[in-house]
Structures are given as C-alpha cells and as structure tokens.
Amino acid sequence: MTSTHPAVELDGLTKSFGAVTAVDGLSLRVQPGEVVAFLGPNGAGKTTTIDMLLGLSRPDRGTVRVLGGTPDDAVARGRVAAVLQTGGLLKDLTVGETVRMTAHFYRHTRPAAEVLERAGITDIADRVVGRCSGGQQQRLRFALALLPDPDLMVLDEPTTGMDVEGRRDFWQALRRDARRGRTVIFATHYLDEADAYADRIVLVRQGRIVADGTTAEIKNLAAGRTVRATLPGADQAALAALPGVDAVEVRGDSVLVRTGDSDAIARHLLTRTAARDVEITSRNLEDAFLALTTAQTGA
Amino acid sequence: MTTSTPTRAAVTEPDRRLPALGGFAPGALGIELRRVLRNRRTLAFTLIMPGVFFLIFGLPQGGQSLDNGRPVTAYIMISLAVYAAMVATTSVGGAVATERALGWSRQLRLTPLRPAAYVATKLITAMSLGLLAVVIEFLVGAVAGVRVPAYVWLLSGLAAWVGSLVFAAFGLFIGYLAPAENVMQIIGPVLAVLAMFGGLFVPVEVLPDVLQQVAKFTPVYGMGVLARAPLTGDGVSLAAVANLVVWALLFGVGAARLFRRDTARV
Ligand SMILES: Nc1ncnc2c1ncn2[C@@H]1O[C@H](COP(=O)(O)OP(=O)(O)OP(=O)(O)O)[C@@H](O)[C@H]1O
Ligand SMILES: [Mg+2]
User: Fold this and answer.
1) Closest residue of A to B39, CA-based?
2) Which residue has the least CA distance to atom 26 on ligand 1?
3) A23: CA distance to ligand 1 center in Å?
4) Which residue of B has its CA nearest to A149?
5) E strand spans, A159-235
6) ipTM score of complex
7) What confidence tens digit (pLDDT) does each residue in B78-119 have?
C-alpha cells in the first residue's frame, strides 16, 4: 500500500512573492528510498519548495502529494519529518525536555533516549538549549525529526554553520540512522555533500529544475571539456551535429563547444574550418554547477 | 497480488495513527508548567512581587475595618490576588509572541500538534499559574494574620482565578498580534495601569470623578468588583458582570481571529 506511491510528487509548483517568482512551474517525482540532493545557489527556491512540500505554505499553482496524501496528513501521522533552515527551539528547555515534549505530540515515537543517542547528543541532554552551539541545536532538530521514524526525511541545509568536522559527523549520524527504505531529500549549497550523500541530484535555479540525474550523470555533465576557438560566422548547427558534442554556444566571433571528445572537435575545427586560437579547458562539477545555476546574462 | 511485500515486512512499521486530541498531552503540559516555573522573571512578577506588595502596603493597614467590619487587609489581599492572577495568565498567553518570534511555532507545525491543542495547553498553563498566584497571595495574607470566613476565601479566590481567564485571552491576543521576544516588558506597565483603573492598588472611589467613570469600562474593573463582593457584601452589579463578560468576549474573539489568521497557510 505505502510502497506503491511515490514519496513525493510535485506537479507544476509555482509560488511568487510580489514580483519575485520563487518557484516557477517545478515538477518532481521522488521514489521511495531515493536520497535526493536539492542543489542550487542562494535564492534558487529550495526553501520555498520545501515549505510547500511540507505544507508550511500553499503553492499559487500546482499540486503536492507526499506519500500519496496531503503534506498535512503525512506530517500528522509522522510519515514525514524535517530539519528546517529556520525554525526555532525554546531556549529555556533542556535538550532532553525538547525531545520529550515533542514526543508527546505524536501517537507513537521512538524512545527519546534512542533519538538522542542517534543524533549524538546524549551527553548534552540536560543542557539548556540556549546554551547549545549552533551545531548542537541542529543535531537537536535532527533528533526531533527522528522521533516519528519518518518514511520521508526532509533537510534544508542541515549543516549550515557547522565546521567541516561537524558536517561530517552530522552526515555520519544521518547515514547510521538511515532505515532501509527511508526517502531523504536535502537542500544544500555544497557540491561535495550532494556528491557524497545523494543518489540523485536535482539542480535548481530561479525556481526551475535545470538538471536532474544520478550523481554519476550530473558528474558526466561536468566530465566533458570546453573547446573554445575564434571562428567568425561559425555554423552552430553543423558543429552541434558533430559526434560527442553536448552544446555549442556562439559569442560574437568566439565559439564554445562543450564535448566529451575535445580532441576530435579541436581536430575538426583546425582542419575543416578557419578556426584559430583553439583552447581546450576541462570542467569539473563546480563548473557544471556554476554554468547550470548561474543566471545567463543576455541568454 | 495477494502476498505482502517481504522487504517492508522485515522492518517493523511504526504506528501511523493520528494522535488523540490533536496531540494535546498531559506530559507536554507538565514540561510546559515546569518551564514556566523555572522562569525567574515570571516567578518574580507573579508569585513574589504581589506578596511583597501586600507586606508593604497591606500590613500597615492592620486593625482597620471596612464598613461591614471586615479587615481592610483582606480587601487589599484580594485585590492583589486579582493582580497576581492577571499578570500570571497574561504572561503565559503572551509567551506565544516569544514562541512565534523564535520560530518555535514553525517547528511545531512539523509535528501532529494541532493549533487548537497548542492553545489549550497555553490556557491550562496560564490558569494553573493564575491559580498558584492566587493561592500564594492568600497564603501570604493568612500567615500575616488576615482572618475572614471560609466562604470569603473560597468565593473571592474563585472569582479572582476565573476572572483571570480574561487575561489569559488578553495574553494570547497580544501574543498573536505582535511576535516579539520581549512582549511582557511592553505589557507589564499596561497591566499596572489597568490594575489601577480596576481598583486593585487603591479603591476606585478615591480616583477623580471622571476617572471613576472611565474605570468602569476598563477590563480589570469587573473582576475586581466580583472578587471583592464576598468580602464587602456589596451586591454584584450588573455592570460589573457585563464588564467581565464583554471583555472576555472581546479578547477571546480577538485572539481566536488572530490565531486563525496565523495558522492559515500562506
Ligand atoms: N517570504 C518571502 N517574501 C518575499 N520573498 C521571498 C520570501 N521567501 C522567499 N522569497 C524569495 O524567493 C526566492 C527564493 O527563496 P528561497 O528561500 O526559496 O531560496 P533558497 O534556494 O532556499 O536560498 P538559500 O540557499 O539562500 O536558502 C528568493 O528570491 C527570496 O528572496
Ligand atoms: Mg533556503
């Protein structure tokens, strides 16, 4: 019954704030058990999408289904839990009290001691939240999200403000906990996090998905090289038709060819066309990310 | 397909039913109460200060009597009990403002706790602290030698306590109106002025005539009159009852409307 529904179905999701279209017709389907990274620059619309996914805000247009039902129902049944980018804790409760109090709101939860242990904060259970570091508070939010043993865990930049070691510890805790079949969606700015912890990467920019694939596929996007040459009046269509060419861009007298076979393209340019100043540069995931997520001026 | 899925069966499925009563739970209430009782500012303003006020302003009146022969100290004690209860209930209701400012409300929306259950928890916490405030004020009075018939203790205490429901609603109203962390610092002086008009610090009769007329329409007036009626033996005027009911409705409806606006998904 539960396994037949996608974990998440977003269809044509749109949300504007005044003149800003934060999310622009975004559609996404996540299957149970997938670990998906939502990768994008500041203001890409990640948090806005997650808010709608969790039922914290309503889309202007489009629909959200979570585990086959409404977000509110999934939240109320403890089937989805989240660690939010914003969202406070009561400073005058202790870590342990916060967990126990939250546990009371559910029909059934894992024992408080167990989630504290899994989030790695057992030793600070008696500490008042106001005196916990940012990283410790983030682990507390994580502990709260573990309480209902959710089928879907949503994390919005969970490691923001943590140092490198804190980030590693956090992800290790998440991994240790990963119940078989749990779906995880996390938003991040960090490519390495997406690369290390996700099976699938969804790149968003200006409220739209600009790339979506397995980590390997997204890396492949980046694995190629760019061949740049000066070639006035380049025949864009002819170049694009060459084997191994991913994309061709003409900027004035320059032509940029993205390809998996840079040698062949360079040879072609030098022998069959009037191209000169040929340059070959390799791209990495960072470049792909930037290329895909940076607003193209005059595009 | 008639077989169940073996991969899922291996993992014990958690209980996915909805919580009873929208997530309202005595356990959470207990933690909430402890949290309130740990707050030094709340304790100082609701449990200690009114008692100290009695010792400073009430005790010197020892030996003096009201028209019906009852001690003036009892009059002052009951007035201060009303004051203590209203500050107590307002501060708990007003804490909603802090929790919204901190973003705790947003965190709560990721749990099965229904907004109505949250408000119910706040109201019960507010009334518990209000009751404690009345009891402590009365204890201070009793220990300091106030002697009145048992029914006066009971009825006056009850009226002070039940009347403070108006201020639990007032606190919630302010809490949903202004998401500010330091909301009590702003309301504190307002409460003091209202208490003055309600005759809690000095009898309304000593105020200038115009102010006496104004006072009858302020929100503390009704509960003050009702709480002191068992002591003074004055009949309960319709105006006092109407005052209490109207203000309870105003704050209650106001809080409910703001609350609905707050929980509407945007
Ligand atoms: N409540 C709001 N009012 C007005 N504009 C908003 C609001 N929330 C988001 N926005 C705008 O919508 C756009 C998307 O914001 P969003 O927070 O979803 O981005 P994000 O991808 O989560 O960014 P970040 O990586 O910085 O967290 C931004 O331009 C932001 O300024
Ligand atoms: Mg964000």
Assistant:
1) A92
2) A42
3) 9
4) B14
5) 183-188, 200-205, 208-214, 225-230
6) 0.85
7) 999 999 999 999 999 888 888 888 888 888 889 999 888 888
Tell whether B39 is covered by a domain.
yes
Q: Reply yes or no on whether the pLDDT at B266 is more than 50.
A: no
Q: What residues of chain B lie within 8 A of the CB of A100, using their CB?
A: 27, 31
Q: How far is CA B19 from CA A59, A65, A77, A78, B120, in A?
A: 27, 22, 8, 10, 15
Q: Which CATH class is domain A225-282?
A: alpha beta
> What whole-number distance in Å separates Cα of residue A265 and Cα of residue A236?
13
CA distance B51 to chain A (A): 26
Number of domains in chain B: 1
**Domain coverage including residue B30:** 23-261
Q: Which pLDDT score, from 0 to 100, does residue A261 have?
A: 83
B120 contacts on A by Cβ (under 8 Å) = none
| pLDDT of A51 higher than 80 | yes
Quick one: average pLDDT of A203-220?
A: 86
Pairing type for strands A35-39 and A61-66 reads: unpaired
Residue nearest to atom 17 of ligand 1 (CA): A47
pLDDT digits (tens, 9 = 90+) for B201-260: 988 888 889 998 899 899 999 999 999 999 998 888 888 999 999 999 999 888 888 877
H or E element that contains B150: helix B150-163
Of A97, A105, A144, the CB nearest to B112: A105
Q: Please judge whether A89 and B266 are an interchain contact, meaning their C-beta atoms are less than 8 angstroms apart.
A: no
Using a CB–CB cutoff of 8 Å, tell me whether B150 touches chain A: no
The pTM is what?
Answer: 0.83
Q: Say if residues A168 and A198 touch (Cβ distance below 8 Å).
A: no
Protein residue closest via CA to atom 28 of ligand 1: A43
Q: What is the pLDDT of residue B41?
A: 86
Give me A244's structure tokens.
């191994």
Between strands A152-156 and A80-83, the pairing is parallel
B10 found inside a domain = no
Contacts of A96 in chain B (CB under 8 A): none
* Chain B residues inside the 8 Å CB shell of A110: 14
Distance of CA A222 from the midpoint of ligand 1 (Å)? 27
Which atom of ligand 1 lies nearest, measured to the CA of A44?
21
In a domain, B137, yes or no: yes
Say how far residue B21 (Cα) sits from the centre of its chain. 23
CB contact under 8 A, B107 and A76: no
| Domain A8-220, architecture per CATH | 3-Layer(aba) Sandwich (3.40)
Q: Is residue B239 part of a domain?
A: yes
Helices (H) then strands (E): counts for chain B:
13, 0
